[in-house]
């Protein structure tokens, strides 16, 4: 099944892949710079690297050499032959993001799953740019919104929506209403919510629990409504 990636999402390690179209390197990580389908391509054609290797060919040529002391010395001549050998090396697979075809259109319906990026967080509402619907990347983002009452199954007293989402977070959500110009989205299910995010320090946030994510740089915890990883 195609994997849809969103801008800033962690894709893999630079030690395992080479960045292709739609991918950039940040430190030792590769991240998506565009919305699209992840694609891994074989390494480019092997390139021949001319590297000098030395093949030693040794032989000894003996001959008498007379010196004033009438001592017989042996002269040893070492001849080395330099042979240039082409060595081939294997490159890394290329990780790319395939952008959506401009002619493709996806229609969201109630129950559809979407991927989006948080653009603004208000006291009772989260604004989302919907980037993909049911695995289909959209040519242009749609407007979406998550209301405070649709974030979790139950809302506790003194609920703060800013402890669930922050601008630039990448989220997975369910379409609750698709009748108007703005999709109403929900993240109540365990596998819905924040997929990836950046910390206040600029590091990648890694899921710790349903409520917390840890900064890869500082180790500090930040609160989010975390989407449960697949298979967990």
From TrEMBL:
GO CC terms of this entry: cytoplasm; nuclear exosome (RNase complex); nucleolus
Tell me which residues make up the Exosome complex component N-terminal domain: 6-37
Which UniProt keywords are given for this protein, alphabetically ordered? Cytoplasm, Exosome
Where does this chain mainly localize?
A: nucleus
Q: Which domain of life is it from?
A: Eukaryota
> What's the protein called, per UniProt?
3-5 exoribonuclease
Query: From the Swiss-Prot or TrEMBL record, what is one GO molecular function term?
Result: RNA binding
Might you name a Gene Ontology BP term for this protein? Answer: RNA processing
UniProt-listed InterPro entries: Csl4, EXOSC1_C, Exosome_cplx_N_dom, NA-bd_OB-fold
Q: Where in the cell is it found?
A: Nucleus, Nucleolus
Q: Which interval of the chain is the signal sequence?
A: none
Give the Pfam families listed for this entry. Answer: ECR1_N, EXOSC1
Q: Where is the Exosome complex component CSL4 C-terminal domain?
A: 140-177
Q: Which organism is it from?
A: Cyclospora cayetanensis
């Amino acid at each position: 099944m195609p994997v849809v990636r969103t801008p800033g999402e962690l894709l893999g390690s630079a030690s395992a892949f080479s960045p292709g179209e739609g991918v950039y390197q940040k430190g030792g990580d590769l991240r998506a710079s565009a919305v699209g389908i992840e694609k891994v391509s074989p390494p480019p054609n092997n390139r021949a690297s001319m590297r000098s290797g030395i093949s030693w060919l040794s032989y000894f040529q003996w001959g008498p050499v007379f010196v004033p002391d009438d001592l017989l010395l042996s002269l040893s001549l070492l001849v080395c032959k330099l042979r240039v050998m082409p060595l081939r090396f294997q490159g890394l697979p290329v990780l790319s993001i395939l952008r959506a075809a401009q002619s493709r259109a996806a229609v969201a319906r109630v129950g559809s799953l979407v991927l989006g990026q948080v653009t603004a967080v208000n006291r009772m509402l989260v604004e989302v740019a919907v980037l993909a619907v049911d695995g289909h990347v959209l040519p242009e983002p749609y407007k979406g919104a998550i209301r405070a009452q649709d974030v979790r199954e139950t809302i506790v007293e003194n609920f703060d929506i800013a402890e669930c989402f922050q601008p630039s977070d990448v989220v997975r959500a369910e379409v609750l209403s698709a009748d108007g110009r703005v999709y109403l989205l929900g993240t109540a299910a365990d596998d819905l919510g924040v997929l990836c995010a950046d910390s206040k320090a600029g590091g990648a946030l890694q899921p710790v629990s349903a409520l917390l994510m840890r900064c890869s740089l500082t180790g500090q915890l930040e609160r989010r409504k975390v989407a449960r990883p697949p298979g967990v």
